[in-house]
Amino acid sequence: GDSVTQMEGPVTLSEEACLTINCTYTATGYPSLFWYVQYPGEGLQLLLKATKADDKGSNKGFEATYRKETTSFHLEKGSVQVSDSAVYFCALSYGEGFQKLVFGTGTRLLVSP
Amino acid sequence: DAGVTQSPTHLIKTRGQQVTLRCSPKSGHDTVSWYQQALGQGPQFIFQYYEEEERQRGNFPDRFSGHQFPNYSSELNVNALLLGDSALYLCASSQGQGDTQETQYFGPGTRLLVL
User: Within chain B, which residues score under 70 in pLDDT?
Assistant: First the structure.
C-alpha cells in the first residue's frame, strides 16, 4: 500500500544551521504531498504542500520540491531558529472520491542557541 | 475565523468503558476526518465523514464508530476501551469534494488515557 518513510530523529542543530529532513514515498497514482509540523502539546499545523510533480511548496523559510523521479519530498531550510524545534511529519494524500492522509513516523528537530 | 475545535482536551478512562470525543470543523468545511496518534508515531487514519455518512474507513475495528451532524460537527465513539487505545485523537476538516489536493486542517486533539 501507499507509505511514507522519513529519516529518523532527533535531528540536533545549532541556530542558523541548514536543515534537510528526508522524505520518500511509495504510492500508486499521483498523490499530493504535505509537510505538517507539531509543536509540543499541540495538534498538527500545515507547513507546506505540493500537488504535482516539480511543484515547490514553501512557507516560513521552509521549502520542499515534489520529485516524482526519485519519489521524494525533502524538507529544507537555510537557517533554522530555536523556535523551529518541533516534530515534522511528511504525508501523502490519496483517494478516489475521498481524501486520506498517510503519514510518516515524524522527525524531531531540536535547535539550540 | 475559528479553526477546528475538539473537546475534551484530556480524558482518563478505564478498560472496558466507552468514550465519546467531539469535533467542530473549520468554518466552511463539510468533511471531517479522524486520526489516532500513538506516542512517538505518526497519525493513523480512522475514518472520514461527509454529508453525514462514513465515506472511507481505515484499518480500525468496529469498536471505533462515528457520526456527523447536519452542522458538520462530528463525534468519535470508542467502545470496550483497551489499554492500546491510549493516544492523541486528532480531528481534521476539509472541503468536501474528496480532492486529494485539498488541505486538511487539524484540531489540537484529545488525549485519551486508558487505565
Answer: 1, 97-100
